[in-house]
Amino acid sequence: MSPRPYRLGQRQVSTDETRSRILDAARAQLETQSSFSIDAVARRADVARMTVYYQFGSRRGLLEGVFDMLAARGGLRGLPSTFQQADPRVALDGLIDVFARFWSSDRLVLRRLRAMAALDPELDEVLRERNEGRRQGLRVIV
Questions:
Q1: Residues of the domain holding 23
Q2: For the chain, which terminus, N or C, has the lower number of CB atoms within 10 Å?
Q3: Structural domain total, the chain
Q4: Cβ pair 57, 19 in contact under 8 A
Q5: Under a CB-based contact definition with an 8 Å cutoff, are residues 127 and 113 in contact?
Q6: Domain for residue 130, yes or no?
Q7: Is residue 1 part of a domain?
């Protein structure tokens, strides 16, 4: 007989809140500072540095989390419906609309991320991978 499955319950809510607080702190760090570090984000989120590592695994994992948060807030969840369009012109118009909303959603943070990527190979790699996904989307439509 297998043991009863473990569910976090209220602890899951607390974990999700901590994760959200860390992501908000990372976004604020990017918005207000010219540097980005796990230590600075942890201080801003009022958590231990190890909590950030526990939640995201690495600096790259944290950056991926920030990108995912910015994408969700910027409306990139609308992308799947653009690829379901039968007419490629309608799909391309939808793609342009979704990305125009995204790029204008948090302009300062997105601009700083791009600028920091010029000096930070890890951040540059994350951005390149995300951009390749966008290019692949365009290839599908074209």
A1: 10-141
A2: N
A3: 1
A4: no
A5: yes
A6: yes
A7: no
